[in-house]
Amino acid sequence: MDLVIYLVLAASILALGFAFYFYKSMLKEDEGTDLMKKIALHVRNGAMAYLKQQYKVVIIVFVILAVIFAVMAYFGLQNEWVWFAFLTGGFFSGLAGFFGMKTATYASARTANAAKNSLNDGLKVAFRSGAVMGLTVVGLALLDISLWFIILTQFTDYDLVVITTTMLTFGMGASTQALFARVGGGIYTKAADVGADLVGKTEYNIPEDDPRNPATIADNVGDNVGDVAGMGADLYESYAGSILATSALGAAAFAKSAIDGMQLKAIFAPMLIAAVGVLLSIIGIFMVKTKEDTNMKKLLAALSRGTNTSSILIAVATFFILWGLGIENWLGISFSVVVGLVAGVIIGKFTEYYTSQSYKPTQKVSESANTGPATVIISGLGLGMISTAVPVLTIGVAIILAYLCATGFDVNNFMSAENLSLGLYGIGIAAVGMLSTLGITLATDAYGPIADNAGGNAEMSGLGAEVRKRTDALDALGNTTAATGKGFAIGSAALTALALLASYVEEIKIALVRVAEHASNGLAQITDNIALTAEEIHAASLVDFMNYYEVNLMNPKVLIGVFIGAMMSFLFCGLTMNAVGRAAQKMVEEVRRQFREIKGILEGKAEPDYARCVGISTKGAQQEMLFPSLLAIIAPIAVGVIFGVAGVLGLLIGGLSTGFVLAVFMANSGGAWDNAKKYIEEGNFGGKGSDQHKATVVGDPFKDTAGPSLNILIKLMSMVSIVMAGLTVTFTLI
Amino acid sequence: MDLVIYLVLAASILALGFAFYFYKSMLKEDEGTDLMKKIALHVRNGAMAYLKQQYKVVIIVFVILAVIFAVMAYFGLQNEWVWFAFLTGGFFSGLAGFFGMKTATYASARTANAAKNSLNDGLKVAFRSGAVMGLTVVGLALLDISLWFIILTQFTDYDLVVITTTMLTFGMGASTQALFARVGGGIYTKAADVGADLVGKTEYNIPEDDPRNPATIADNVGDNVGDVAGMGADLYESYAGSILATSALGAAAFAKSAIDGMQLKAIFAPMLIAAVGVLLSIIGIFMVKTKEDTNMKKLLAALSRGTNTSSILIAVATFFILWGLGIENWLGISFSVVVGLVAGVIIGKFTEYYTSQSYKPTQKVSESANTGPATVIISGLGLGMISTAVPVLTIGVAIILAYLCATGFDVNNFMSAENLSLGLYGIGIAAVGMLSTLGITLATDAYGPIADNAGGNAEMSGLGAEVRKRTDALDALGNTTAATGKGFAIGSAALTALALLASYVEEIKIALVRVAEHASNGLAQITDNIALTAEEIHAASLVDFMNYYEVNLMNPKVLIGVFIGAMMSFLFCGLTMNAVGRAAQKMVEEVRRQFREIKGILEGKAEPDYARCVGISTKGAQQEMLFPSLLAIIAPIAVGVIFGVAGVLGLLIGGLSTGFVLAVFMANSGGAWDNAKKYIEEGNFGGKGSDQHKATVVGDPFKDTAGPSLNILIKLMSMVSIVMAGLTVTFTLI
To answer: What is the SS3 assignment for A696?
Structure first.
């Protein structure tokens, strides 16, 4: 049984191997004319320069946090592996973003060049490059997971519960890295995008990515650092987090199992599903191809064939995996996985419905442009708010079904200690199910920005309307498939966060034991407020802990926590929105200045000062990303110190529920405005440069900065709480 | 001691008496020229016609609900008084709105006419008319409360816990009425306002309230039905709800008190504070006057003198009241009241800070107009989101302090059964403290729309720029004082909702006993799932119920409830926003049509078809208000049926936390845009008709439709849960 972990390691190497293969084969493609190469180089250098700058800031934060964890370990408030595990999580998460971005910046000109031949060739280059990112993310995540598991089982005498919970702390590293990447990258890209659009498209009525627009290079760099590197780090975190949280829950749920080895099986189950998912993703990726005489519809069919095949296969395979593992109630737990998959599909479909110009809701937003910008905004906000209903209800049904399936529909003992552990495990593994085919779903998501950049390259290199039309078609197609991807990402975030809640309580248990053991270390006084013996702690169930810490809805500490959690989501979004607003304003002023002061710029006779615009985005992102990100780390610690375990759990629930709904709202409002914008750009309702057009630009920071960052915020707060549990149980004010 | 209730009755008669006196003295003022009278009559008739139309719809809903309650009473799921108490609550709430609006529509022309003399005269008429509304609301609420208390103690043998909880059900009537009034009125007024502004101000560049604008009458009618009648019903609900919830908590907290009569004292305490508040409000109202040679600063000082005096006096008086009543821990509970008052002031001040053009945040929103409408929207949204931090933290601190004060800072037994009941009582009475001087704070809030309408009348009757300037000054002043009023309203809503949560659990207890007693009525089978004996139920504390129903944060039912609650707030706002959007679009099209088709309309030679615009708003409001309002009633019932008590409590907490934060966000974003709009109208950043100007119009539905309705939504969901508790405990699916 112990050897299963080597299967996971093998899957990780397989993923990385294919990623490398696709990367190499992409590099073999022709990068096109000298001008194309030059532009690509500009973008590549800008993106790499930004990423280096960002990593410099992030490294400082990581070092400080690692030192804090080391100090905590010294005082027995954490174990001695955490600080290092934390660093590796951050490192791998950053690496996933870095590789993805490197690939994307090499792929854009090549995609544009391939699109000169045909739509199909363009798709092939872009999609395979997206697959590099998808496979790198899953490969690195499984590598980190399997190596750590091997190390901790070989070199420590921790029991499996402690091992799996310790591994969760590298999740915190990944989440921290992901938040910085999303927030920093998000501010960068949207400041550039909004700035470029507001002046270029709407004031001067020149096309997107026109080389005369000084913000064009910054805009293209932004797509890479925000949409590619940010997304890579983000999904690395989601993927690893869901597997780690579920393994930890499995270790806890089966800790007292009478059957030997059942605990290990429960730990391996999510890892193995993910490992098989890698294989099926690769199969799916190879299935994405069309004949030469292709059109949009056939392309979409090809992409769908790839993702659908992978999804259906993993659903079927899950039954065999869990049956083969011989896990208790394998049938029920398999259905939990299927529940997760189906929920992801439903949320994805509804996301598409609400944000695609092919359906009524977004069409109505475009229509409302007839009565001016205010009604565009009102109807977009209204759409986004209403669109939260289906995802929330879907997640609600998924939670209850995943729980019931895993517990054999034992409604009469719904909350018995055993059923609760099993049920939460079911919820966690549903999230793993959703993300199991990330290798291919991320590929369909990541190739969009590559196609977008290819379009930019084509425009700037003057490749002509036909090529641009093809890259635009690829980009539009990417939006459709990305909608489904977003459904999976957001749905899995909610389920994973729930699983992390339970892991938090498990960690509280471990922390209590650890603190009790270290009481001789001078902590005796502080630990006086823990009125439990080690035996009691070991025997206690999750519900016992709820009662002990009075984590019920009448406890004012819980209620205050919930309020603060709800507020945190809004505050965080407000800060990032304002950051984008400020940076975009500077960008707008700079672009206007250049148009005004650089003679001949509009006639294409003088070259704009691209570097200044890149500098504005870089500086804006660097300055603005720190405060909101640190807030996410500090808030759970502060609430823990003041209000204890009850307050922290309230905070996490409040942040999770409001954050989830707010994220869906912002993503869908933003998506609808973005597509309404495209529709107006096609000449409807006033066309480019009209007031209506200007108003729809508002969607960008919604969709690509604040919205996606919320997913990470929710989980990061949980991760921080888990890592800080030792502090929370030893010291609280009230 | 029993006689205290007659003091409350006396205070209610005092309030109504002074309301009548102010009303009569306002009527004695001269209504001005014939044209002024004619315009006022137009608006008055339009407003009354709308209100009648609205009441027709609402009556049907009320009759249906009353019948349902009667049926429930027959099956022992509710007691036999509920259906009637429910109706009276709705009736009085509607009456408060009706009287307020009647007064406002008589006062507008008189205010305009008085403003011809001086600013001071204008203030006097408008403010005294606002006071009619303030005193009517508190008078009717105390009348309803005292009469019902007398009836139930005289004619039934219910114990005090059952009596106070039964009285809460008339709160549901008030909440239902208030929601319809706010939503219907809010859609009406904003459809008219946005419609009038978008075409009149921004497309044709004619002044606000210009008689050439076909939507002008509808706009002025809207101010009355939305801002006046809606606000009246809303605050009636808040005021009565906070007193009733606190009395119910007091009855429960002191049910087992060893000292005779302590329970009754706890019930009377909030009523008595409110009664004394009436007296102090009247004193405050009389203190609002200035000398003839006045200016804005002196006017503001006069208003502040009135409200501050009342607030300080009630803070001092509370200590005497509670000491005089001889309630246990009177000192601590008095401090809870003071905590509420101070929290209200803090939230009010910060609301002003974030939304007034005198401070940086709103100035920055105006500034961002330099870079176009999208940045105006982004910065407004960012501001609103960030502005949620202070109110949430203030409420958090208020909750914990009110709780600790009431329990004598007994931190070691924070959640003991006794402390929990006492602490929740402290939270409830903090809300009563916030609202105790509603008589005057509502006057300062309600006179704003009257001044606004006076401005409309002045504009349409051509009274000249000087008069209009004065009414505008009064209106602007009203915005500043209204900000403080909003702080009190929203803060008290959060605290009251928390108190209602506890009342819900008390009602569960009562329902369990009632159902057990009626088991012979054919419910025996259903009640099998209640595994408690009557003795156990009586002996159980709030925490016992939490444990019995497993209302902890690991229960998936609770979590799903929280998710749905969070989503409900967004869905509700989305529905009302879209309703405004749709109605406003129709209005815009109609106004454009009239400008296009009616010859000579812009030159003032032909009269616009005002009635059609009134009709569009009326129809829009009628059609659109039903669904969101009914949703608020159905959601808690549905969640109760499916997920039981745990799910309902999750729903209420989710709705409360997200709803509160969302309400602050929308109110402040909306307020900031509104003031930015005024600033731009003064000729800054492009002035009237610019894109920037158009974009700021988006704030209206935020501020006046969706935002304020959320306060009621939160409480209505709690009230519905309380009334439906009998159903929830007898029948749940999972």
So the answer is: helix
Shortest distance between the Cα of B331 and any Cα of chain A, in A, equals 21
**Centroid of chain to Cα A210:** 31
Q: Which of A647, A299, A290, A34 is nearest to B414 (CA)?
A: A647
Calculate helix-pair angle for B465-517, B389-406, nearest 10 degrees. Answer: 50
Q: Provide the phi-psi class of A78: left if phi over 0, else alpha when psi is between -120 and 50, else beta.
A: beta
Chain B partners of A574 at a C-beta cutoff of 8 Å? Answer: 381-388
DSSP H/E element including A726: helix A725-730
Please indicate whether, in this complex, the C-beta atoms of A379 and B581 are within 8 angstroms of each other.
Answer: yes
Best mutation site among A366, A420, A563 for testing chain B: the one with the most B CBs within 10 Å? A563
| Partner-chain contact B585 A368, CB within 8 Å | yes
Q: For residues B49 and A32, what is the distance between their CA atoms, to the nearest angstrom? A: 72
Question: Per-residue pLDDT tens for A316-328?
Answer: 999 999 999 999 9
How many angstroms separate the CA atoms of B94 and A272, rounded?
A: 63
Exposed (0-12), middle (13-18) or buried (19+): which is B96, by Cβ within 10 Å? buried
Q: How far apart are CA A173 and CA A81, in angstroms?
A: 13
Residues of B in contact with A194 (CB under 8 A): 374-375, 378
pLDDT for B145: 96
Supply angle C-alpha B331, B333, B336, rounded to 5: 115
Q: What is the ipTM of this complex?
A: 0.95
Helix (H) or strand (E) holding B245: helix B231-253
Per-residue pLDDT tens for A386-401?
A: 999 999 999 999 999 9
**Coil, strand, or helix at residue B2?**
coil
CA distance A150 to A136: 21
CB A146 within 8 A of CB A320: no
**Nearest residue to A163 via CA among A250, A233, A38:** A250
Nearest alpha-carbon partner for B103 in B35, B59, B47, B181: B47
Across the interface, of B385, B550, B653, the residue whose CB is closest to A559 is B653
Instruction: Evaluate if pTM is beyond 0.90.
Output: yes
Task: Say yes or no for a CB contact (<8 Å) between B584 and A378.
Answer: yes
Residue A495 has pLDDT above 90, yes or no: yes
Both tokens of A627, joined, read 């405060």
Structure tokens at B571: 């869905």
DSSP state, B305?
H
DSSP A78: S
